[in-house]
Amino acid sequence: MRWIAILCLGVGGLLGLDLHFQSFSAHFKQVVLGEGPSPVYEGEIFAKMPDLVKWVYDKPSAKEIYMRDKRVVVYEPQLLQATLTKLDKSLDFFTILKKAKLQKDGRYKTKIKDTTYYLTLQDKLPYLLEFTDKLNNKVQITFSAVKINIPLEDSMFVFVLPKGVDLVRH
After folding, report:
1. Does residue 154 register a pLDDT over 60?
2. Single pTM value for the model
3. Contact 108, 101 (CB under 8 A)
4. Neighbours of 58 (CB within 10 A)
């Protein structure tokens, strides 16, 4: 659960870099490199300033992650469960990531709490986000079909609890 919140923070922060856009959508492919087999996740991400993020996972199984107002909801339809987590009140991830520094290798680098993020741009758009999670797994998220400044309704970032789904609060 922690890596999901960290992941949301990292990608939500893409909008905070001086990239001059208010909204962002893309297909993503996420690979977690650890000691065992490397799981691969795929789906779509939608983000809108100031702090709205929605991940829609298609593979390997359906999952939706909503981030809004320093809260994260992870909805797993197959489990009929949604988990609500409140983020650290003192963490303003957009402000922190605005301070990301361009490195000599062309990537942007920033640190949030104990996690260092590296963002690679391609054609001035987010292409690759890399970080090492608390379990020492290297996470690589590749973005494709990136669209910026597209109209995104705030309502798409609001999770509505479906009937019969349990809500777990952390």
Report:
1. yes
2. 0.82
3. yes
4. 12
